Amino acid sequence: MKAAPSHDPAAEGPERARRDRRAGRRRRIERELKALHLMDGSLRGREIAWALLAIPGIALLWLVVFLKLHWLSGSLPAAIGVSLALGTAVWWIGRYWFALAGLVVLALCIVAFEDAPDLSSGPDDRRSDRRRKLERAIAKRERLLRELQG
Questions:
Q1: What domain count does the chain have?
Q2: Does 5 fall in a domain?
Q3: Cα distance between the two ends of the chain
Q4: Which end of the chain is less enclosed by CB atoms within 10 A, N or C?
Q5: What span, in angstroms and rounded, lies between the C-alpha atoms of 39 and 141?
Q6: Of the candidates 92, 91, 86, 123, the residue with the CA atom closest to the CA atom of residue 107
């Protein structure tokens, strides 16, 4: 018959303190990860807002190109046909290769305004830097959680 293991409360103290610290650390990392994911969601919301603002801008650009084509050609059906063909081409290209569709829109801007728009890298660089920093922080917290669980 085996003797019941002796239960020493003094030996349990450091182990319990270590478990409590580990659990507290885990809860803190989970809270930080939740906050970081919330921040990531707000970045996506901002991108959606910019997309919603860009759609009327591109439609206005198409109208300007249409008016310029109508003015240059003097033919309403030709201007409508070319505008519809360009719109369909950009939509189809954008489904597969977004960067090329962006170049076509840039070309339309040049046609419409006879000048290239200023594409300085101001807010986009800050946004991409922030996104990279956020992704690194999320990856770090997820790695710490896996280490604690595992």
A1: 1
A2: no
A3: 36
A4: N
A5: 14
A6: 86
Q: Which domain holds residue 52?
A: 12-149
Question: pLDDT per residue over 18-60, tens digit each?
Answer: 888 888 888 888 888 888 877 776 667 767 777 677 777 777 8
Examine residue 6 and state whether it is found in any structural domain, yes or no.
no
- How many C-beta atoms lie closer than 10 Å to residue 102's C-beta? 13
Alpha helices in the chain (DSSP H): 9-73, 76-96, 98-113, 123-149
CA distances from 118 to 6, 33, 64, 106, 146 (A): 78, 38, 18, 11, 46
Q: Is residue 84 part of a domain?
A: yes
What pTM was computed for the model? 0.40
Classify residue 3 by its DSSP letter: P
Evaluate whether residue 4 is within a structural domain.
Answer: no
- Output the six-digit token pair for 147: 């280490």
Determine the length of the chain: 150
Round to whole Å and give the CA distance between 150 and 135. 22
User: Which residues are within 8 A (CB) of 131 and not within 5 positions of it... i.e. 6 or more apart?
Assistant: 43
